[in-house]
Amino acid sequence: MTKAFIAGCSGLALSAYEHAFFADQQPWGLILFKRNCDTPDQIRALVDDFRGVVDRPDAPVLIDQEGGRVQRLGPPQWPAYPSPAALVAAADGDEARLGRLAYLHGRL
């Protein structure tokens, strides 16, 4: 029985080992970390390569992008997003405002 899993990769491009492993094991998706992200063109090439290896043009690609210290896509290529702590500070104790800020932050 095959189990769905999300795979990561070691660098800015898939290695020969990762190509073979992903082709054989068919992960459901790919998660990107800072070590995998340089420029928009490089990320596009990495994603296209992964999707080609698993032969699914719609294979999901995930990235943890919370803002603050947890920001895989950052300047100068992408905007710097505020941390969750900065949102709490900006809400100044107003729970409704914090909820709205959190919602908008998530939409980014």
What does this structure look like?
The protein is of the alpha/beta class and 108 residues long. It starts with 5 loop residues before the first strand and ends with a helix. 42% of the residues lie in helices and 13% in strands. The protein contains 4 helices and 5 strands. The chain has 2 domains: 63 residues, no CATH class; 34 residues, no CATH class. It is elongated. The chain has a 3-stranded parallel beta sheet with strand order 1-2-3, with no helix packed on it.
Compact summary:
This protein is of the alpha/beta class and 108 residues long.
Which bin fits the share of residues in helices?
A: 40-55%
Strand order of the largest sheet: 1-2-3
What sort of overall outline do the alpha carbons produce when their principal axes are compared? elongated
Gap from first CA to last CA: 38 Å
Coarse structural class: alpha/beta
Radius of gyration: 17 Å
Annotation, overall tally of beta strands: 5
**Overall pLDDT score:** 88
The number of domains is 2
Low-confidence stretches: none
Count of separate DSSP helical elements: 4
SSE series: EHEHEEEHH
